[in-house]
Amino acid sequence: MEFSIDSSISNNSLRFSKPEPEYVTVHLSGVVSASARVCTYTDETGISNWLNKLASFSKPWKSAIVWQSLENQFSVSATCSSLGEVRLSFQLSDMHGHPEEWQVTSNIITDLGQLPVLAKQAEHFFNHACT
């Protein structure tokens, strides 16, 4: 089972897979590729809830709306231009405190009208993945 957010202007993609209790694997592909196992402890439906909040807006909003994993391996923020272009800015990292710790930041562009579809897909993935 997977859930992905694909850019509307490039081949960048953010994909969630391998759900397990308290963890999900997050993959970035496109210009760069990276993946990390992200802890969702205490907030297993957090990304779904975050997308549902974004989907509740019928017009552009003013400030960034952010979700961050408990152990800071993954964070994502959303802004929306006056034209309805949604920029998802995210950071994916792993091996915190290790000499070879790594971090990747990137953006994905989607449209305001696409958010309800993404929210439904995320809700299905995160609510049914571990059952």
- Strand numbers in spatial order across the main sheet: 1-2-3-4
Mean pLDDT: 91
Which geometry do the CA atoms define?
Answer: globular
Distance between the termini: 12 Å
Residue stretches low in confidence (pLDDT < 50, at least 5 long) are: none
Q: Indicate the proportion of strand residues.
A: 35-45%
Radius of gyration using CA atoms only = 14 Å
Annotation field: number of helices: 2
Overall helicity: 10-25%
Q: Characterize the largest beta sheet: strand count, sense, and whether it forms a barrel.
A: 4 strands, antiparallel
* Element-level helix/strand string: EEEEHEEEEH
Structural class: alpha+beta
Q: How many E-type strands?
A: 8
Short description:
By secondary structure, this protein is α+β, with helices and mostly antiparallel strands. It has helices spanning 46-55, 115-128; strands spanning 2-6, 13-20, 23-29, 34-39, 65-68, 74-80, 85-94, 102-111.
Notes on the structure:
The chain is an alpha+beta fold. The protein is 18% helix and 44% strand. It has two helices and eight strands. The strands form two sheets. The protein has a four-stranded antiparallel β-sheet, with helices on one face. A hairpin with a 2-residue loop joins strand 2 (13-20) and strand 3. Helix 1 runs antiparallel to helix 2. It is globular, with a radius of gyration of 14 Å. The model has no long low-confidence stretch (mean pLDDT 91).
Give the arrangement of secondary structure elements.
Blueprint: E1 2-6, E2 13-20, E3 23-29, E4 34-39, H1 46-55, E5 65-68, E6 74-80, E7 85-94, E8 102-111, H2 115-128
Antiparallel strand pairs: 1-2, 2-3, 3-4, 5-6, 6-7, 7-8
Helix pairs in contact: 1-2
